[in-house]
Write a structure and sequence with these properties.
Blueprint (H helix, E strand, L loop, with lengths): L1 H13 L7 E10 L18 E3 L11 E10 L1 H14 L12 H5 L5 E3 L5 H4 L6 E10 L7 E4 L4 E5 L4 E4 L3 E2 L8 H14 L8 E20 L2 E7 L3 H15 L1
Parallel strand pairs: 1-6, 4-11
Antiparallel strand pairs: 1-3, 2-3, 5-8, 5-9, 5-10, 6-7, 7-8, 10-11
Length: 249
């Protein structure tokens, strides 16, 4: 959770630069009765950044909800922005296939292994596996906040290029293609939560593979620093993990 706190602080600072593609907006995190959702995340939120909702404020069908102020990272804007910052500092980007960490570790003083699912083969780590996620894309403009229900799971994220509606959580599924039946189920859940979404045009869909591991592997092994297994929390943990990686160099 400390990684989460440090990442939050970093993204909040970056949100001051509009070019970063990061803005602070409300998140409503909701749970249904008996869902067993845990609230330990609350203690890691900055002071005065969240409140519990009650009565008519609760989303339809939910027994408990919190509203928090969080960074929304427009990845299609932030990643090019971040890359340009690194280029400006003299960082070179080289695309090549890596089949052996030992070989590349002899070419450089330090190697940071952020290979995600690739670590299954590169590190012979059978504990990391894919969790497939599918989302539908609706025309942008609604809603004005993020919605999250971890148990269903359902999430609605209002990006500038599309409203992302998810999702699925399919362990050990390595097929990175969308399935129409699954997308219809995802949309049905979202329409129940926010009926006004029915009026938004469907403009696309995505499927991706989250590199899940029971715990993130972040440790140094000779001159290789492993940093993988973040599942669907890559951005949430990113700069907290990066700070720890830097401390191991």
């Amino acid at each position: 959770m400390e990684w989460c706190r440090k990442s939050y602080t970093f993204f909040k600072e970056q949100s001051a630069d509009r070019a970063s593609g990061i803005r602070i907006i409300p998140l409503i995190k909701a749970a249904k009765a008996g869902a067993g959702d845990e609230d330990t995340w609350i203690q890691y939120m900055p002071a005065n950044s969240l409140r519990e909702l009650a009565g008519a404020e609760l989303p339809q069908g939910y027994a408990k909800a919190f509203e928090a102020q969080v960074p929304l990272i427009e990845t299609q804007l932030f990643l090019p922005y971040l890359q340009q910052q690194l280029v400006d500092k003299g960082v070179s980007f080289v695309q090549r296939e890596i089949t052996d960490l030992d070989g590349i570790s002899q070419e450089y003083d330090i190697v940071v292994n952020c290979t995600g699912l690739g670590a299954r083969e590169l590190c012979n780590d059978a504990t990391i596996f894919a969790v497939k996620g599918q989302v539908a894309l609706l025309e942008p403009g609604y809603p004005d906040h993020i919605f999250l229900d971890n148990q269903t799971p359902s999430y609605i994220v209002p990006r500038k290029d599309a409203t992302i509606v998810g999702g699925t959580y399919e362990e050990h599924n390595y097929d990175a293609h969308t399935v129409e039946e699954d997308l219809q189920q995802v949309l049905a859940k979202a329409y129940h939560i926010m009926p006004a979404l029915r009026e938004r045009k469907i403009i696309g869909s995505w499927a991706g593979l989250r590199p899940f591991r029971q715990s993130v592997r972040l440790e140094r092994e000779s001159n290789i620093i492993h940093n993988y297994g973040h599942g669907g929390s890559g951005f949430t943990l990113s700069f907290g993990c990066a700070e720890e990686v830097a401390s191991l160099v």
